[in-house]
Design a protein that fits this description.
Structural class: alpha+beta
Number of helices: 29
Largest sheet: 5 strands, antiparallel
Strand order of the largest sheet: 12-13-19-15-16
Low-confidence stretches: none
Strand content: 5-15%
Length: 734
């Protein structure tokens, strides 16, 4: 043990440094001093990711590992199939276990912090292997983890952060596999790809997958090695993530995103002016996703100008090319490169917001900074040209400040950033002079200057708010008071008209017809476009939170209470005679798909007496409701509904749950095919008599995906065990 510790002492120290830096960077999230506390600002972080994670935590505490359906989002929606829920992400499971029964805003913040640490450790491991230098690995880890990219929009969009975390693991596996000719490392790369996909951002996973394939093609010793490696890490990655990928692919075809965005809607990206971020951080934007520090830029330039050994030169050429391509793609349709990718690269046309490619630019630049640090530490730079270049660089940043001050009308914030850059440039140049003289003794100064720069720019920035996490999004008192009524009537729905609970139905455990997520079923979106009384009726709404004081008169709604709290000033109403969650319909109109909404929206169309269908039914409806028509709702769970229906005439049982092919129905124990009615709701034909009806959400896509993932897990475990035992067996045989 002691021999192993001595041999790995530099790496252990580096790991300790990275742990300390992560704790110090985020200390204000967890300090016990309330006046000093920060929290991640509300936005996508709170309305979507915290919301979803709270629902998963509640189900986890009840014993469900992977929730499939969420009844508290858009009147019911697939949960696992929405990739940004990260419902099958193993790291999320670890945090749910750690905080079992006590999930909170701070818990999700800690998950974010943990991914910063994992990102830094994996980036260190990758660049350490590439360069053989501990400090080079530290420089790259600090530049990527605490640079502008991770501390910009990924703080809010947690799935982007957590998916990108595993990029260095994939690249490490490819690097080691092509270096050692061990195919087990390709399996490790596949595990990284699976984690990237399961973390919940398909666009990031796709971009990183293409980068990994390009890196493998660049490093391969033969095309046979490339084909084998790509096959292994691709199959392992897809196989492990199949439990989520297959339901997601099915869900995507049923959502509002299934073909509504065209090239123009997907071609957005950074404005060209944002390239100033590369050197002048926040001059053009509140965030600086292209920034990795002044010293990081200088070290990356050293890597390009002083390539050194053949292996370092090869790595440098790849990362220069990767960085340039990623930067151009981040401008979206402003360059022809995106049009090329959109038309010819599989999958590139599926996503919008092309500025997310800046992840690859930031990582490429961080790797180049690590390679540049290796150049500095190789004692090859002690010459007059280097010194002159550094002085010119420092002089340029200082001259830029002077020129800006001479221009009238320049914003003070711009002058502040330019002045800061000039100061840090002078500090970086001085540090480099000092390190170049004695690189072995002074190498940690490179890390220190980079930390000073990046922490000054990113730490506690605009991604955070000066409020303790414990004070954010408390459940309103009126909603707490309403829970007993909701428990007594679990089939009643809630509409908030963008008030509380709004997108937070999943957080507060309220079955609302609103919700959060860019992915929503097309049918429910069309229903919500109907006149308000009609969609309230279709979706079985009983309670409404709104500031519209005319509601009581127009619909004879009963005001339950006025609300004046952190969520705003409005009132809670109860609608008279709300429609039940399941009802019997005795007349249906067969119309073309495109005409259904227009028919339903007609003022004289009675949705309580008639239903709109687009496919013929298997039975004939008589049109008259018999006196004995009755539906009893017996039990409701997120993925299961039980009810009993009595009718003396054939009927259509209409259920106010969004239609999805994953729902399976039985009537008196016999399987029955569900039909889609009223654009987006579930229905099933019933013969006359007594019917015991059960609906279960068990998508075939989940069953197949789970089987593939479990099979792949078994193969990976066996492969890993063989890789560990093989050297021992070889030594024993020898």
């Amino acid at each position: 043990m002691m021999i192993w510790v001595r041999r790995h002492r530099p790496d252990l120290i580096a790991v300790a440094v990275l742990i300390f830096l992560c704790a110090f960077f985020f200390w204000r999230l967890y300090t016990p001093s309330l006046p000093d506390q920060l929290s991640i600002s509300q936005g996508d972080f709170s309305s979507q990711y915290y919301n979803f994670s709270a629902y998963q935590a509640r189900r986890f505490a009840q014993g469900t590992l992977i929730p499939l359906w969420n009844p508290d989002n858009f009147a019911g929606s697939p949960f696992l199939a929405d990739p940004q829920s990260a419902a099958a992400y193993p790291v999320r499971w670890l945090f749910l276990l750690l905080f079992r029964g006590n999930w909170s805003y701070s818990a999700l913040e800690l998950e974010v912090v943990a991914h910063f640490l994992i990102t830094s450790l994996l980036t260190y491991a990758f660049v350490r292997r590439v360069t053989g230098q501990v400090v080079a690995g530290l420089v790259a880890a600090v530049a990527f983890s605490y640079g502008g990219y991770l501390n910009s929009f990924p703080i809010q969009q947690v799935s982007i952060l957590e998916s990108g975390t595993w990029l260095p693991l994939v690249l490490l596996g490819i690097h080691q596999a092509t270096r050692r000719s061990s195919r087990f490392w390709f399996v490790l790369a596949g595990v990284g790809m699976a984690l990237m996909a399961l973390a919940g951002h398909p666009q990031i996973a796709l971009m990183c997958g293409y980068l990994a394939a390009a890196y493998l093609a660049y490093r391969r010793r033969s095309w046979r090695e490339f084909m084998i490696g790509a096959l292994i890490f691709g199959v392992v990655g897809i196989g492990l993530a199949a439990v989520m990928l297959l339901p997601t692919a099915e869900f995507q075809l049923l959502t509002t995103r299934g073909g509504t965005f065209n090239y123009v809607g997907k071609a957005g990206g950074f404005p060209f002016s944002d390239v100033t971020q590369i050197l002048w951080s926040t001059m053009s934007n509140l965030y600086a996703p292209m920034y990795i520090g002044v010293l990081g830029i200088v070290l990356a330039a050293f890597a390009v100008l002083f390539k050194g050994q053949d292996s370092e030169a090869r790595e440098t050429r790849f990362w220069v090319a990767a960085g340039i391509v990623a930067l151009l793609l981040s401008f979206g349709g402003k360059t022809a490169l995106f049009q090329f990718a959109y038309t010819l690269v599989p999958g590139a046309s599926l996503f919008r917001d092309q500025e997310r490619a800046v992840l690859l630019w930031s990582f490429a630049l961080a790797v180049l900074a690590g390679l540049g640090a290796a150049v500095v530490l190789s004692d090859r730079l002690n010459n007059a040209r280097v010194r002159a270049g550094l002085w010119i660089f420092a002089g340029f940043t200082a001259l830029f400040v002077v020129v800006l001050r001479m221009i009238p009308g320049v914003a003070d914030s711009v002058l502040q950033v330019a002045t800061y850059t000039a100061i840090v440039s002078a500090l970086a140049v001085a540090a480099l002079f000092w390190v170049i003289q004695r690189p072995a003794q002074r190498q940690m100064l490179l890390v220190a200057v980079l930390v000073l720069d990046l922490f000054s720019v990113s730490q506690g920035g605009v991604a955070y708010t000066a409020l303790p996490a414990a004070t954010l999004l408390p459940e309103p008192a009126w909603l707490t008071d309403l829970h007993p009524q909701l428990a007594a009537d679990p089939f009643a729905r809630f509409d908030d008209l963008d008030r509380v609970p709004g997108p937070f139905g999943s957080l507060y455990d309220v079955p609302t017809i609103r919700g959060t997520s860019p992915l929503r079923l097309q049918g429910i979106q069309q229903i919500l476009g109907l006149p308000t009384p009609k969609y309230w009726d279709l979706l079985a709404v009983r309670y409404v939170a709104t500031e519209d004081s005319t509601l009581a008169d127009s619909l004879s709604a009963a005001k339950l209470r006025d609300i004046h709290d952190w969520s705003g000033d409005y009132a809670l109403y109860e609608l008279p005679d709300p429609r039940p969650l399941a009802t019997l319909i005795y007349a249906a109109d067969l119309v073309a798909e495109g005409d259904a909404i227009a028919v339903m929206a007609a003022p004289d169309y009675d949705l309580r007496q008639r239903a709109v269908i687009t496919q013929p039914l298997a039975l004939d409806l008589g049109g008259e409701r018999p006196a004995d028509a009755k539906v009893d709702l017996i039990a409701i769970q997120p993925e299961r509904l039980e009810l009993s229906a009595t009718t003396s005439a054939p009927a259509l049982l209409l259920i106010s749950i969004p239609y999805h092919p994953g729902w399976q129905a039985t009537v008196n124990g016999e399987a029955v095919t569900l039909v889609r009615a009223d654009v987006g709701l579930m229905a099933l034909p019933l013969a006359s008599g007594q019917s015991a009806v059960t609906l279960e959400y068990t998508p075939r896509s989940f069953q197949v995906g789970a089987a593939l993932s479990l099979l792949t897990v078994g193969i990976v475990i066996l492969t890993g065990a063989f890789a560990l035992l093989r050297p021992r067996l070889s030594r024993r045989n020898s």
